[in-house]
Design a protein that fits this description.
Radius of gyration: 26 Å
Low-confidence stretches: 1-23
Strand order of the largest sheet: 5-8-7-6
Structural class: alpha+beta
Number of helices: 15
Helix content: 40-55%
Strand content: 5-15%
Shape: globular
Largest sheet: 4 strands, antiparallel
Mean pLDDT: 87
Length: 456
């Protein structure tokens, strides 16, 4: 089973949408970058999309948009030279998830196709693959250009000293939370029923009565892979739950189905697609036993008793978190949670912004005082399982303007971001000087961010 950050979670709905087809645009080449052309329709489609999504334009859209497209083409041109390519399994995974969300948003595949100018879903997805592929290549190219940025504390202090009070960044409110969880018991007969159903799937596949991909699409509870017939994409062992990795890498015949295996996410059967060195592509079907309300009540009652014992001083919160809690990620940390969101500025620390807390926890923590212990509540853990938890609010830092003593890491990230921007800007200006660029009449009278588009 792939770890949740990389596999279980549905991709953000903010992922770039394909351009909206326009039937009445008279097309023409307006820019040429190297051997790549930018069409009037490219700009118009992007303008209409941004307008429909409420995205604000930075100046004249007929200047801003073609310049942004041109910058992307500079990166793509260099990526060809440097042999930087997108991971096709990632591209496919993102596009499939996006298409599934779009269909749900519009209510049906037909309505979505109508909105996209009457194009068939297969055509829309092919166009989106190109968009996502280019986006991924640009990001990898930028990483290569920037390289590793090394900053010293004096660099950060110097940056802070140059900022006026009005320009200091605002640091959002953060909390540190300690947690004790209890997993409701699943009756053995329910577990046996799940295993039996997965064995029935295996029998149907082996007899040729059903394809693995079809059963995964219909029944797998890992929705992110179900829409692709259970396919996970190429992953290394470190990206998978250990039990899943052991079973998947022991498969050598794509016609063989694994035994039923259990991971923290539930129960699986696995089919090998292909191995490439230390990476493997597989299909799986995930089923999870359902937690009954009766078992939730029992777990809540046990945590109520534990809560009372902590309040009475019979056991400390730290002791309970270490020896009683079902949360394996925090047991060795005396219950203190660590932020595992790689997109967060607080990644790897014990700080969380409220929206980064697990589902069901934020509304509880928001009302707590520092040092207070909550009553038991129901929530989803990192494996998407229903658990009962009590939490203690260790600290809360209110939103404030940044200062070096409290917000060094945030300021360091801001300096790094500015350094990255400076490096990228310098690279773009340098690349402009060596690239063939032609801009059609009527498209040149702009206040461009990078003036070198217009050769002097």
């Amino acid at each position: 089973m792939i770890k949740k950050k990389l596999f279980i979670a549905i991709i953000s709905a903010c992922m770039i949408m394909p351009v909206i087809a326009q039937k009445n645009v008279v097309d023409e080449v307006i820019w040429v970058i190297g051997d790549e052309a930018i069409l009037r329709s490219d700009v118009e489609n992007q303008r209409l999309y941004m307008q429909s999504e409420g995205i604000r334009f930075e100046g004249d859209p007929y200047c801003f948009i073609p310049e942004q497209i041109a910058v992307q083409k500079l990166f793509l041109s260099q990526a060809k030279i440097d042999s930087i390519y997108a991971d096709e399994s990632d591209v496919l995974r993102y596009v499939d998830r996006w298409a599934n969300m779009a269909i749900n948003r519009f209510g049906s595949k037909e309505k979505f196709e109508e909105y996209m100018g009457g194009k068939k879903l297969s055509q829309i997805k092919e166009e989106q693959k190109r968009v996502v592929r280019d986006q991924q290549v640009v990001e990898e190219m930028q990483k290569k250009i920037v390289g590793e940025i090394k900053l010293t504390p004096s660099d950060v202090r110097k940056f802070f000293g140059q900022l006026s009070k009005d320009s200091l960044p605002m640091i959002p409110s953060t909390v540190e939370v300690e947690i004790i969880t209890m997993e409701p018991q699943i009756p053995i007969e329910d577990i046996d029923a799940i295993k039996a159903r997965l064995r029935e799937f295996t029998e149907q596949i082996n007899k040729g009565e059903a394809a693995f991909s079809a059963l995964a699409s219909l029944y797998s509870e890992d929705l992110a892979s179900a829409i692709r017939g259970g396919e996970t994409g190429y992953m290394s062992k470190i990206q998978m739950a250990s039990e899943y990795a052991n079973a998947a890498f022991n498969l050598n015949d794509p016609k063989r189905i694994s035994n039923v295996i259990e991971t923290e996410y539930g129960f699986h059967i696995i089919q090998l697609i292909e191995k490439r060195g230390d990476r493997l592509n597989s299909r799986h079907i995930l089923l999870r036993p359902k937690v009954s309300e009766q078992e939730i009540v029992k777990a809540t009652s046990k945590l109520d008793t534990l809560y009372a014992h902590i309040e009475e001083g019979k056991v400390t919160f730290e002791e309970a978190a270490t020896y009683i809690s079902a949360d394996k990620d925090t047991r060795n940390n005396k219950g203190l949670m660590v932020n595992q969101d790689m997109e967060s500025r607080n990644y790897g620390t014990s700080k969380f912004e409220m929206q980064e807390l697990p589902q069901g926890m934020g509304v509880v923590v928001d009302k707590m005082e520092v040092g207070e212990i909550s009553k038991p509540f129901r929530m989803k853990n990192h494996s998407d399982k229903d658990v009962v938890a009590i939490v203690r609010l260790k600290s809360r830092v209110k939103a404030h303007q940044a200062n070096v003593s409290d917000d060094y890491q945030a300021l360091k990230a801001l300096v790094e971001e500015r350094k990255r921007g400076e490096i990228i800007d310098e690279w773009i200006v340098s690349k402009q000087k060596t690239m063939y660029i032609r801009i059609a009449d009527g498209w040149r009278e702009c206040d461009f961010k990078y003036p070198e588009w217009i050769k002097k």
